[in-house]
Amino acid sequence: MNWTGRRLPRTEDPALLRGEGAFTADLAAGARAVRFLRSPFAAGRILSIAAPDLPPGALLVTGADLEGVGAIRPELFRFNYRAIAQPVLPRERVHFVGQPIAAVVAATPEEAEDIAEAVLLDIEPEEAVVTIEDALRPGAPTLHAEAPGNVVVDGTIRHPDCEAAFARADRIVEFSLRSGRQNATPLEARAGLAAHDRATGRIRLTASCQMPHMLRTGIAALLGMAEADLQVVAPDVGGGFGQKMALFPEYPLLVWLARRHRGSFCWIEDRNENLIASAHSRDQIHHLRAAFAADGTLLGLEADILANTGAFSCYPTTCGVEPLMALAEYPGPYRLPTYSARARALATHTCPAAPYRGVSRPVVTFGLERLMDRAAAALGLDPVALRRRNLVTEFPHVTPTGLTLDQASYVEALDRAVEAADIPAFRARQEAARREGRYLGLGLAVFNERTGYGTPAFAARGMGIVPGYEVVDIAMTPAGEVEVRIGASPHGQGLRTALAQLAADRLGLDPSRIRVIHGDTDRTPYGWGSFASRGAVIAGGATQLAADKLAARLRRAAARLLQAEPDSVTLRDGAAWAGEASIPLTEIARRVHQRSEQLSDLGGFNLAETASYDPGGTFSNACHVAEVEVDAETGHVRILRFLVVEDAGRLLNPLIADGQVHGGVAQGIANALLEEVLYAPDGNPLTGSLADYLPPSAAEIPHIEIIHMETESPETLTGAKGLGEGGAIGAPAAIANAISDALSPFGVDIAELPATPARIRALIRNAR
Amino acid sequence: MKCPPFDYHAPRSQAEALALLARHGEEGKILAGGQSLVPTMAFRLARPARLIDINRIAGLDYCRAEGGRLRIGPLARHARFERPVAPGPTGRLLARAAEHIAHAPIRTRGTFCGSLAHADPASEWCCIALALGADLRVLREGGERLVPAAGWFQSVFTTALAPDELLAEASLPLLGPDWRCGFAEFNRRAGDFALAMAVTALRLDAAGHVAEARIALGGVAGTPILAEAAAASLLGASPTPDSLRAAAAIAAEGFEPTEDAQVPADYRRDLVRAMTRRALEGSLAA
């Protein structure tokens, strides 16, 4: 019975659909409410914070109360990184609108908000640095003395032969592009509940987070407490997309309150706080210059990457994560003989940036795929043929930045997509529509996605804290069920289902007999979490290894009980078999635990194993095709068709894979057309509600066609590659190309996302 | 995003509500559907000390044709208008606009009169009220007055309604079959507040000439506004694609647009031109 590869409905879903999920806010009954007082100024000096008359039981906590509490200061030992520090609560200066500067505790959230409003804040505003241009301006105010010129990261790659490539080019294509600032906007905003246990003195922090073990390590270090005295629990988590990876000031403050006041304290972030003060992303300007031969061969690429990473550096990845991902991965799926690039992270008086689904690669793919279309136009070549000429076809392939591309299907996926899109028929429709004054366009985006990378990849970045591996503890209970304890922490990815499918096949068990336990530092081995498209590959690989070790133990026990050779024993249908003879696994489990006198010489009194997995990484790939209609009068873009050819290797559960593609593409469409965090020139956020910041609704998302290819990776144990981010990576570029194609009669080139109706109208107006 | 403290009253009769308004008008606020008021309170942008909830007053949810007018009570919900509430152009226009009002759950709670009292510049009902010439019946303890829509909208979220008054009824003319009504609006997501909308109403005489014309624009200025010059340009002749285009161009130039970070003024004019022409064309295509 093969469970892996089946479209098994997710075991997570019934409770969620019945409204019986347990999110942090569902668990907060009885806790005192915490409200953060947030800076109304982007930049300023704190003169005083005066408490109003506090009702009995209420508290006001400011930076002055946090004697001995450290600052959040992640490290990166490469790329001219300047370590900058974020106080849990600031004493001297504020650095962005929304930065927590005090905490109010009251019996209810309403009362806490009333008190917070009455706190007298005296802040002397200072000049704010808001945009990339502001940060780079000579003489601009400096946010952090450690980072002169507001440059926090400055990474460079220089290939000596790059200039020669440009010298012999037949055509040089050069342009700049910009991708606006986004907020990941998980359905559930952040939330934390810190509870003190009087018997042990321990604190349990329940938090809507992606990396519970990392959060524990970070908070314990900040507060100078024993890590063993802190338990972090991630209950049901309503999406994260990277936004919930970082260590934010709010959580250590909750733990500090619980320890100091020996009680329970909860903070449920509201949508306004989430939009202005949780974490942002993208906000990049890339300048590209590419050398081509007349036949379309790409000879060389230069990239200058600027990322506005906000006021502080996120822990543990640092603010280098965005620019350095672009620096390392700009070559994409293309053969690139030579490459030079510089990537900088710039500090500004805006909400700090953190990873967000795709991390830079949506912008990189936007750049590369606009480059392919622009180059094809400049050289008079077919854009599909141009891509085909340059895509990597022989594997393994080493990129100019030293990454190894494993077996993939770059050309094959492009061909499948082009065939399914039926471009000749589209061109006929496009021609007919133009005669009626309607503008249809078709855009392609080919890309690869580095996924499932372990310790070496993170170590190469020079991170002070190097994530990568995952550990899985597996055990069979005396009654024969299997518990799989994972350090990863899924929050919507369906790992409970997919890992059970994997383990079920290795153990010959029905997946319903397998429980995957996650999101609790007391009950799971140390691990990193769910991010970077790594769950299926790394947690999956470790689960497979652990299940194999358990299977070997079961076979040894079965061999004894069946009087057979261990090598002749197989596990299937919930039993161990030696020829025609069999014994149920439940019976083996009972005997090992409760009749150990029969089996103890085989190695222990239990059926527990541990395994870890730390792969080098693998690249999945995809081709997205968008067909759009642009209303030239209003600038509105309607997506008529969206097609994804995705190759993520062996699919553990295609139903879950489809869901990942759907969700990713929806966020990519948001990036392309709708979502943008905006600031006024003084650093005041203008998009503090969902009436101003525009995630798509169901009405804006078209039907998404998916064609799966399965090029199994030799680099991963399960043959799977990650695909969690791909949807978000390809969609912006495909849509930008489709809009540019639609508006080619006007000579319009999309170089800024989101391509809002107002921007598109301005481009058309200026073109005319 | 939690409401500041407030007192709550739930009168059982209109008289009781008016008495509460007389006593607490300045610090009181009528709660009908609450779909704008409650979020505004959660953002603490509105902080009425007292809410006077009229939902428990019987008989206020009516919507009936009477004396050539459509009379709409203060608890008639948006969803009521999703299908024509009366035969003829007025009912069809209201149905055409209703689908653009937010989302289905909001339409089951929010009210027609509440929208007029709230006076969001991008309200579909406000724009239609101005275009068709609604009359608004206002009550206060011991008094009553009728305010024409043209005198109702004063500025963003501000109307002629006094603090001690209740908007007790809105009435719209039931237009005859010689009228052609059009509606078009533009928003970035389904259900969002419009960046621009146009409501048009043309009366054609027996010869097919435009005998009366009304064009109202919403979402483009502090209040809904009439595009009078654009409407006048259509009078006395049969509408043609060119004359509709010309009228739309006049509408686009004839107002002072509100501007913000996402919608520059010239883009607002682009939208008004497109929406006006589409509303006019749509009304004549039917």
UniProtKB/TrEMBL annotation, chain A:
The keyword Oxidoreductase applies. The keyword Oxidoreductase applies. InterPro entries: Ald_Oxase/Xan_DH_a/b, Ald_Oxase/Xan_DH_a/b_sf, Ald_Oxase/xanthine_DH-like, AldOxase/xan_DH_MoCoBD1, AldOxase/xan_DH_MoCoBD2, AldOxase/xan_DH_Mopterin-bd_sf. It comes from the Bacteria. Keywords: Molybdenum, Oxidoreductase. GO terms for molecular function: iron ion binding; oxidoreductase activity. Its EC number is 1.2.99.2. It holds the Pfam family MoCoBD_2. Residues 18-127 form the Aldehyde oxidase/xanthine dehydrogenase a/b hammerhead domain. This is Carbon monoxide dehydrogenase large chain. It comes from uncultured Craurococcus sp.
